[in-house]
């Protein structure tokens, strides 16, 4: 009997670890193995000897697109993310008011959360193609005579705009959802207290709402920045390699050129950038009142 | 400084009616207490005065100005929130300074006033902490400090001392009252603690179920309750109530069944319309005495009962007495020894009884 | 100052109108491209290539049929199979872990949870490239199972975190009542906790399905002939005429739209928003 209870409590004691172990092992294997393998691929030749040839290729070869890809990935992030944060803040403030159809509006705004980057790209292609909605609309209205061309190598700046539009349209929902959740957690009384003490709309936003939203905005920023370095499908659909991005180059080196070492190097670079960004984020932002807000 | 008038305030939240017509005149510089049980609409009234809530019907006047639809920021009010609403992302110092900053007070003056308020509330040690590093009571004091650093036209306080320990609470009562006297700000103070109401209020407005039951000085409320609700809500232990029939035909008396109460001519005259009818009689426990302890010149009936239960509180002794199927409570100051089951004869003065209309609950005398 | 009876309502209504305008504009911004792309997916080529027909008036299924004939039918099937496998694998592995995080206090819990959150943000697509070598060795290259295993890696942290928060929302007292009435931990889980969490878990499963359904990079890298739908679109459909592409985008977003419709309540709460 006592033996029995001991066995039971022993199982109880290790139960959480037993429950977590399979998932954790799976993750560690499927992330750890590829990363090690990636390092091997990136820094060895066919014979298994150490080499920097892939690195040289990546950095210096005229057929490597690394620097333009890095540049465009950063440029896209720099343009898209601020717009998304502003829009998401606007949407959140809009939905914090009470009005008829509020739930409906909320559901509509989060639809893109479930739409893939490939589909998002195609949807915006239908808007912007030379036979697309906008061109046909503006031509019918007589605003333009010729369709505005968004796609093709000679229209790269327009392709860039198309990607920005599609990504802002599709991925703002994620930023919005995080910021809106944060806004909902702010007790209404904090805002009312500011009103009572004489704060106008702007003072309320600047001194109460924005500071209290800081953790959510930071989280949204982090997630968005990480995603920005993985941008792939939407670019491939709308611009192909006209606008090179890191993931796109990795894909190209891997599946078209069979430069497995170079592709692995791209993978490692994306992973390294993400880890560094995550680390900086944790170091930089440590909101002291986070505990209370998250209560 | 300003006087505040509430005119027929009605507020509904969906199906619940929080306020059913509140009329109240608050004089310039007055300290008025809103007293009432939980859920009676105190906070709602305060929020309407602050401008955080718009009434469905009725008006709010500051002086002659109709402020019913004026946003809070244009009212120059100050408020202690029931749940404190101390901003978690600001240090205590910045919380207290915030109302001053908005009003454009110069930095030096801000520092001076923050220090003054913090000292008054004994939180000067905590100025550089964040709210999550404070206890509930400390947070509450920050909320009070923040409300008193400015000189508003109207100061609203929603149970500002509810979370303090007894000692600090008593001290803060007198501090707040002194402060209010000094700056002479019109103050509306919400509490459901009657001792607080009695000791602090120039006048008390007793509320129940969204209506004001009575407005008056603490003495008026205590000595001349307007109805059974006020009579029962104010005073501890609660006033004794029992039914009695008015008999004015032969001997003039109130017949309570187990005992009768003789009526003076004055009383009888007041009860003329009630002859033969049932009224509610009220008598406060502190005005009932065991016969042997009664004041010498006391005139009133004697009631014989059996002791059910004795609460010995040290400073007071509370005796629960069974008289037939009636239950009476007697409160004596000091400690006394009475045994359960013992017979006891109690007396009370005729001048201390209250008589209420059985149907409306309104006081007849 | 004008009396509030006069000026306040005008400003108030003006504000209301502007506000309603902004709400409508925001919703249009999201809905219009979806509606247009769906209309184009079903429009006849004549309508689509006619510059005067902004909104097509003649509809046909032939775009979808052509797309399916091009290989999208098989790709769609593949996508569904991969997504279902991903849901099964990630729930078998993730559900117990989620339960452990929700219901046990144990040493290292916080660090483990932080690790999972970190992995949730890890750019999983990078594992696909080195995985190819392993898959070739294991014979998993260009197989649906291979893709599903990779997708499971991507979905697992999400499943652990989301199921954990779903289990947390089931009151402990209900489980304790189960213990009191003689159930052991396993029975309690299957008879009480699981049924109570079922709606939330279903929503989480659907979302996991969508995650796999939408994933393109790993699928495109890990397959050659057994393409999933997004990989197929990326590699084959891009050469097709425009309206065929729109047909492809329609098939891609269809499950997403259905999901938003049936699980909108959970989609919202899954991200921590409480709708009042
Ligand atoms: N925002 C609201 N929505 C719905 N009902 C409300 C709301 N605010 C208050 N009420 C209801 O209105 C009534 C009065 O509430 P109020 O907060 O004014 O009570 P109170 O007197 O302050 O009570 P307490 O002493 O418990 O603070 C209650 O029945 C309450 O449930
Ligand atoms: Mg209240």
What are its keywords?
heterotrimer; A: 295 residues; mainly alpha; MetI-like fold; 2 domains; 0% strand; disordered N terminus; disordered C terminus; B: 365 residues; alpha+beta; Rossmann fold; OB fold (Dihydrolipoamide Acetyltransferase, E2P); 6-stranded mixed β-sheet; 5-stranded antiparallel β-sheet; 20 strands; 25% helix; elongated; binds adenosine-5'-triphosphate; binds magnesium ion
How is this structure best described in words?
- The complex is a heterotrimer of chains A (295), B (365) and C (276).
- By secondary structure, chain A is mainly alpha-helical.
- Chain A has two domains: 1-51, no CATH class; 55-294, MetI-like fold (Orthogonal Bundle).
- Chain A has helices at 2-43, 53-60, 66-96, 102-110, 117-128, 133-140, 156-185, 188-196, 201-228, 233-239, 246-255, 260-284, 290-293.
- The longest helix of chain A is centred in the N-terminal third of the chain and has 42 residues, at 2-43.
- Chain A is globular, with a radius of gyration of 25 Å.
- The two termini of chain A are 44 Å apart.
- Mean pLDDT of chain A is 88; it is low at 1-5 and 287-295.
- Chain B has 365 residues and is α+β, with helices and mostly antiparallel strands.
- The model of chain B has no long low-confidence stretch (mean pLDDT 92).
- Chain C is an all-alpha fold and 276 residues long.
- Chain C has helices spanning 4-41, 45-49, 62-103, 109-121, 128-138, 144-168, 172-180, 185-214, 217-222, 229-235, 242-270.
- In chain C, helix 8 runs antiparallel to helix 11 (242-270).
- Chain C has eleven helices and no strands.
- Chain C has a domain at 71-242 and 254-274: MetI-like (MetI-like fold), CATH 1.10.3720.10.
- The radius of gyration of chain C is 24 Å and the shape is globular.
- Chains in contact: A-B, A-C, B-C.
- Adenosine-5'-triphosphate is lined by residues 13, 16, 18, 36, 38-44, 82, 192 of chain B.
- The site of magnesium ion has 4 residues of chain B, from helix 1.
